[in-house]
Write a structure and sequence with these properties.
Elements lengths: L5 H66 L2 H8 L4 H21 L3 E8 L4 E5 L2 E5 L11 H8 L4 E7 L18 E9 L7 E9 H8 L9 E5 L5 E4 L21 E6 L7 E7 L6 E7 L4 H48 L14 H39 L4 H17 L3 H19 L4 E3 H19 L3 E6 L8 E3 L4 H11 L7 E10 L2 E8 L6 H11 L14 H12 L4 E7 L3 E9 L6
Parallel strand pairs: 13-15
Antiparallel strand pairs: 1-2, 1-6, 2-3, 4-5, 5-6, 7-8, 7-11, 9-10, 10-11, 12-14, 15-16, 16-18, 17-18
Helix pairs in contact: 1-6, 2-3, 6-7, 7-13, 8-9, 9-10
């Protein structure tokens, strides 16, 4: 696997995190501004719709007023009653056609006027050609739903969009512009007291005339506006291709709101924002479609700004990340250099200029570790020196033990020859004490040998002080071969004799109890000497635990020496514990590890 430096990893991490944050922020800003532009466009368009609403409603009112005026005209009502002769009825129809023509000339938005009587008589004015025909029930209008709906509700006006002249009259009565887009109003009037129930007046309005009223809504390219009825049919549009068809966006509108906007994506076309507004007191909905790409002018400026800001931010980020990386890694490099020096044997190296952070804490730990290694080595050397010193001290007492042993052996045989048995026994005991000095080279021997050594020592002391010291040892058989430090009990027993029994004429009892507890060997040496008061005990313990005993004090070779040797050989958790009561005696407890002979 390719190894990447920490510096490059940190720089890469900063760059990735920065790019991610900047990208997310840019996208969020982009869509937020897009949403703001849409809201702004919606508010602006709705404001236009509200201004346009008055114009469109005025137009509707004008058309409806013209429809009422024509239906209430006496010529229309007389024609529908048809109470005159056939000739008079014919002339009435022609007069009525002239009336329609005059109405058309007065209203430029009026494309044609038609009156469909219940008996099939039709009066129209279309393409400047007045027309009156009798009995034309074959006209398309009579078969249309417009006729059925209007006759069901007298005098109510119905609006229809997407219509053409061919939807009302037969082609044989038309001249030109058969397919001109129309918006039609249909109103039925019932004539009472006649067999004929009345007629239906149709005003066909030029769709373009209505579209011209709101064409200012589509001021930009690809914008479009249109009007749909309650059925969703496009009745007027600036884009004529959708006239008479159902709008695709109608079903997506919120019918519970008077106005609003939605986003819409037609098939094979650009996404659009659709703003709608329901005209008051009508079933018309005014709709404007705005291509989203029209916002791109502002968005492109925004994109350029965001790109420049992104590039600038990345450049600054690279500079700052490199600076901060160098700042962070500098103490790490120092720490690495010092660790390599330590690895190559330069002891005691230290990191300087520590920062107040986690790296500084790590460097401080390294400094402590480095110094601890030096201290440990020095302490180890001191311990070894002390061990050798104590061994030397222990061996100094030998004074050429082999020579002394041979000399004592000669003296023993001289005492035997002269029948001085007490002298011979003393010399034998002393010889047995000297034998381990040259027979055993190891600093350890068995507990059994240590007990035997103490017996010889006490026997010799009894020869000197009058046989008043009684030694008893209680050692379990399975502990006799446990390995202990050589001559560890002799200084303890010697202290008991000199300090415990001197004032008692060397009369007393010494008991040695050996036990095992949790992997440790416990040797208790108890005497019934004069003991120590509390102050003497504290002073003795303090002297015993000193690192170096005072050579001119006898007890320094005793308790202090034995305590130090136990710690040096076995560890700081081992050593001697003292307890004493004045007039009752003293107990010295030696604690050392449980070692078998093979250890």
């Amino acid at each position: 696997m390719m190894r990447i430096k920490l510096k490059h990893q940190l720089n890469l991490m900063f760059m990735v995190i920065g790019c991610f944050i900047l990208t997310i922020s840019s996208i969020a800003i982009y869509y937020q501004i897009m949403s703001t532009l849409k809201e702004k466009s919606e508010r602006s368009t709705v404001s236009q719709f509200q201004h346009m609403e008055r114009t469109l409603l005025s137009f509707r009112q004008e058309v409806e007023r013209q429809s009422v005026d024509l239906l209430l005209n006496p010529l229309v009502r007389e024609f529908l009653r048809n109470q005159d002769s056939a000739v008079d009825h014919l002339f009435a129809g022609l007069e009525l056609a002239k009336l329609f023509k005059a109405a058309k000339l007065q209203n430029s938005w009026l494309e044609s006027v038609l009156l469909f009587a219940g008996d099939g008589d039709v009066v129209s004015e279309a393409q400047s050609s007045p027309l009156y025909q009798q009995g034309r029930k074959d006209m398309p209008f009579y078969r249309s739903n417009m006729h059925q709906a209007s006759t069901a509700q007298s005098f109510r006006i119905f609006w229809y969009g997407g219509r053409q002249l061919v939807d009302f009259v037969s082609p044989d009565v038309m001249t030109d512009d058969k397919h001109t887009p129309l918006i039609s109003t249909v109103r039925y009037i019932e004539i009472s007291q006649t067999l004929r129930r009345g007629g239906t007046l149709v005003l066909n309005i030029s769709e373009q005339a209505l579209a011209s009223l709101y064409e200012s809504l589509a001021a930009l390219p690809d914008e479009t506006a249109y009007i749909v009825d309650k059925e969703g049919t496009v009745i007027s549009s600036l884009d004529k291709t959708g006239l008479g068809k159902r709008s695709e966006v109608v079903d997506k509108l919120d019918t519970e709101r008077q106005f609003g906007s939605i986003s819409y994506k037609p098939e094979q076309a650009d996404a659009r924002q659709v703003v709608y507004y329901e005209l008051e007191s009508s079933d018309w909905v005014l709709i404007k479609e705005i291509p989203i790409k029209l916002f791109n002018g502002d968005l492109q400026k925004l994109q350029r700004i965001l790109v420049i800001a992104l590039i600038s931010s990345l450049a600054l980020m690279m500079l700052f990340s490199n600076y901060w990386t160098q700042l962070i890694l500098k103490p790490l490099r120092q720490l690495t250099d010092q660790m390599q020096k330590l690895q190559h044997g330069q002891l005691g190296v230290q990191v300087e200029g520590l920062p107040h952070n986690e790296i500084g804490l790590l460097s401080r730990q390294f400094n402590r570790m480095s110094q601890s290694i030096v201290d440990l080595i020095q302490r180890s050397e001191a311990i070894e020196a002390k061990k050798h010193n104590h061994e030397i001290k222990a061996l100094q007492a030998q004074i050429t033990p082999h020579f002394l042993y041979n000399t004592l052996n000669v003296i023993k045989w001289m005492a035997v020859a002269r029948k001085a048995d007490d002298i011979a026994d003393s010399v034998v005991a002393l010889g047995n004490m000297l034998m381990p000095f040259y027979k055993y080279t190891s600093p350890l021997w068995s507990l059994e040998d240590e007990i035997a050594y103490i017996h010889n020592y006490v026997k010799l002391m009894n020869r000197r002080y009058g046989e008043g010291i009684h030694l008893s040892c209680r050692v379990p058989n399975h502990l006799l071969q446990a390995q202990v430090l050589k001559f560890m009990l002799q200084p303890i027993v010697e202290n008991a004799l000199q300090h415990g029994f001197e004032l008692k004429q060397f009369q007393g009892r010494i008991e040695i109890d050996v036990s095992e507890e949790e992997g440790r060997l416990l040797v208790a040496v108890e005497d019934d000497g004069i003991g120590m008061d509390e102050e003497q005990l504290k002073r003795t313990e303090l002297h015993m635990k000193r690192e170096y005993a005072e050579e001119d004090r006898q007890e320094s070779i005793g308790l202090n020496n034995t305590h130090s040797r136990l710690k040096l050989h076995f560890g700081s958790e081992y050593g001697i514990q003292l307890s004493s009561r004045q007039g009752k005696g003293t107990i010295v407890l030696l604690c050392l590890p449980m070692l078998k002979e093979e250890s």
